């Protein structure tokens, strides 16, 4: 094996190719075991299912929530077979690449927050694992050169590298066992979900102009696929087969990389082999702050850092509401004013600290420090709406791409993974790289594209090393307001998670000076907001949230866990053996 290949793998994942080969051999042994099991199965009871088989975990296996149902079901199987939250997240992603390519194609990018609790040694000595929480960035990047022939500026993909890095650090099952989940779905066909169809409808005309994707999303007679129709993606299955066998190496610097570059450029995009070879995911320290309504209930909240700007926005909204401390005592009408004003202040502040590259002008810890949040609280009034133009400098409107998808996964040991993905536009540039099955992501350059709206978050109890909450959302600028609303109502306000996620939402983005509300918000609440000085306007939906909340902590209190997907969307949430609406 060439030394440069070993060095590449070490930089890419922290493991050498030899170490990864050992993992593959371990996976092969497990596959051989699977082949031999049927010979002895008649002599075994259900209780003797080996690890790696669905049903191995008999009681609480964790939970999963996401925007697309089939991918959630596949992740549940991994948890039930004894996989970690990272294993389930990896399988869920590769299923999403097949079932929801509008937001999660192999050509896109994203970010995750990962929490691993301490694993104590059964005997004396040091823990097997220490507590760890970190953010994983695998955003799409702009190509180094955009050619004169480029008609649709595209992006350097990050999803495959990101999922490989996640699995290499926190996975227990073999890589091949997780990637094959998506490969099988693509090869043998899936039914079109309502989630996919809702993304297809607004861009159907544009996709029709691409003969490659047109073959996928139209039936044998040329008619658009309908909900429940079966369709296959053979080229994508073949691509996933290569990823299953070779990991990310062939995709980022092998023969497939050369093939992919050629097909992206032929589709009107811009990509070079050097762009792929130079791509690396990054493990970074998350932004953190204390959160809780009393001294004895102080946990720690974690957010993805910039350039995923939504993380800081969520932190400041929740920080204002937490420090105000009156959310619990406020009337049901006043809660909407509190949420709208906190959102306004946080988005105005984003315009002050965020640079053109979406990074912060100031130390991130200062933006969520006690003194920093106290200053923001001084701009808050529970009696009257503060006009946007009273802030100096005046906030400017910023359109944001709403195309994204998210999920959360927890396992029975308390590990949690919260992720968000985007193509920077629905179906990226609207073109598929011929022969690969991969929808090509749009460039992250441009106002409101890229990582700006991605904001997975978590809450951890630092005193007993317990997982408490994980959430992620989509919806562009409204995603941060949506997460903050659900977390404020459930964690700070002690509403049930079911009630908190179903409650009508409000959003104020700083500019224009309009408080947006969902149509099911009561007329009396709307009148109340108007009387406090809000300019109001209805909007069909404010964000889609996926959330897991264990009020008693995990792994200590699995009976207190609830996991929900947003009723505004078409996703699914599964908690242990119980379906959550």
Question: How would you portray this structure in words?
Answer:
- The protein is of the alpha+beta class and 581 residues long.
- Among the domains are: 1-34, no CATH class; 284-402 and 455-580, 4-Layer Sandwich (Glutamine Phosphoribosylpyrophosphate, subunit 1, domain 1).
- The chain contains 21 helices and 21 strands.
- The strands form five sheets. It has an eight-stranded antiparallel β-sheet with strand order 6-3-2-10-9-1-20-21. The chain has a six-stranded antiparallel β-sheet with strand order 7-8-13-14-18-19. The chain has a three-stranded mixed β-sheet with strand order 15-16-17.
- Helix 4 packs antiparallel against helix 6, helix 4 (85-99) packs parallel to helix 7 and helix 7 (175-188) runs antiparallel to helix 11 (234-246).
- It is globular and about 60 Å long.
- The model is unreliable at 1-6, 22-46 and 577-581 (pLDDT under 50).
Cα distance spanning the termini: 51 Å
The percent range for helix content is: 25-40%
Content-based structural category = alpha+beta
Residue ranges: pLDDT <50 for 5 or more in a row?
A: 1-6, 22-46, 577-581
Strand content: 15-25%
Q: Oligomeric state of the chains? A: single chain
Overall morphology = globular
Number of helices: 21
The name of the CATH superfamily of one domain reads Gamma-glutamyltranspeptidase, small (S) subunit
* Strand order in space, largest sheet: 6-3-2-10-9-1-20-21
The biggest beta sheet is recorded as:
8 strands, antiparallel
From the 3D structure, determine the CATH topology of one domain. Answer: Glutamine Phosphoribosylpyrophosphate, subunit 1, domain 1
What is the annotated CATH architecture of one domain? 4-Layer Sandwich
Q: What top-tier CATH class of one domain fits best?
A: Alpha Beta
Q: How many extended strands?
A: 21
């Amino acid at each position: 094996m060439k030394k440069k290949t070993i060095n590449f793998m070490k930089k890419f994942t922290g493991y050498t190719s030899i170490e990864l080969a050992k993992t593959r051999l371990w996976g092969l042994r497990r596959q051989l075991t699977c082949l031999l099991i049927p010979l002895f199965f008649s002599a075994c009871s259900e209780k003797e299912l080996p690890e790696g088989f669905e049903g191995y975990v008999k009681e609480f296996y964790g939970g999963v929530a996401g925007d697309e149902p089939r991918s959630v079901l596949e992740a549940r199987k991994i948890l039930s077979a004894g996989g970690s939250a990272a294993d389930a997240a990896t399988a869920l992603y590769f299923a999403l690449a097949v079932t929801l390519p509008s937001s999660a194609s192999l050509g896109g990018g994203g970010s995750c927050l990962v929490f691993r609790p301490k694993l104590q040694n059964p005997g004396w000595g040091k823990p097997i694992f220490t507590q760890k929480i970190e953010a994983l960035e695998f955003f799409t990047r702009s190509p180094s050169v955009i050619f004169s022939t480029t008609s649709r500026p595209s992006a350097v993909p990050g999803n495959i590298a990101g999922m490989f890095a996640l699995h290499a650090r926190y996975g227990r099952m073999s890589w091949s066992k997780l990637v094959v989940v998506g490969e099988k779905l693509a090869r043998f066909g899936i039914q079109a979900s309502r989630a996919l169809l809702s993304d297809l409808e607004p861009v159907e005309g544009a996709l029709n102009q691409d003969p490659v994707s047109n073959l996928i999303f139209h039936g044998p007679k040329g008619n658009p696929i309908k909900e429940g129709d079966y369709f296959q993606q053979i080229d994508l299955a073949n691509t996933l087969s290569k990823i299953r066998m070779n990991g990310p190496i062939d995709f980022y610097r092998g023969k497939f990389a050369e093939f992919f570059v050629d097909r992206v450029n032929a589709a009107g995009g811009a990509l070079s082999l050097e762009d792929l070879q130079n791509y690396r995911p990054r493990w970074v320290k998350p932004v953190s702050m204390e959160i809780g309504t009393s001294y004895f209930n102080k946990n720690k909240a974690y957010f993805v850092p910039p350039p995923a700007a939504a993380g800081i926005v969520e932190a400041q909204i929740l920080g204002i509401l937490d420090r105000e401390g009156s959310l619990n005592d406020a009337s049901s009408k006043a809660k909407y004013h509190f949420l709208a004003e906190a959102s306004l202040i946080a988005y105005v502040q984003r315009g002050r600290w965020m640079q053109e590259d979406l990074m912060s002008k100031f130390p991130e810890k200062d933006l969520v420090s006690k003194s920093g949040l106290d200053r923001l609280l001084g701009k808050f009034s529970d009696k009257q709406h503060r006009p946007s133009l009273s802030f100096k400098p005046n906030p400017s409107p910023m359109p944001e791409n709403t195309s994204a998808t998210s999920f959360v996964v927890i396992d029975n040991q308390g590990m949690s993974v919260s992720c968000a993905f985007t193509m920077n536009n629905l179906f990226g540039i609207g073109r598929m790289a011929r022969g690969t099955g991969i929808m090509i992501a749009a460039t992250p350059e441009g106002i409101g594209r890229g990582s700006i709206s991605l904001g997975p978050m978590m809450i951890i109890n630092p005193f007993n090393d317990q997982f408490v909450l994980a959430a992620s959302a989509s919806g562009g600028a409204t995603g941060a307001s949506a997460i903050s609303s659900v977390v404020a109502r459930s964690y700070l306000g002690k509403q049930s998670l079911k009630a908190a996620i179903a409650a009508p939402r409000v959003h104020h983005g700083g500019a224009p000076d309009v408080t947006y509300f969902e149509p099911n918000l009561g007329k009396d609440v709307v009148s109340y907001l108007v009387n406090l000085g809000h300019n109001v306007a209805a909007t069909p939906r404010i964000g889609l949230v996926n959330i897991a909340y264990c009020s008693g902590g995990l792994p200590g209190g699995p009976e207190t866990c609830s996991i929900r997907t947003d009723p505004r969307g078409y996703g699914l949430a599964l908690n242990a053996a119980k379906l959550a609406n």
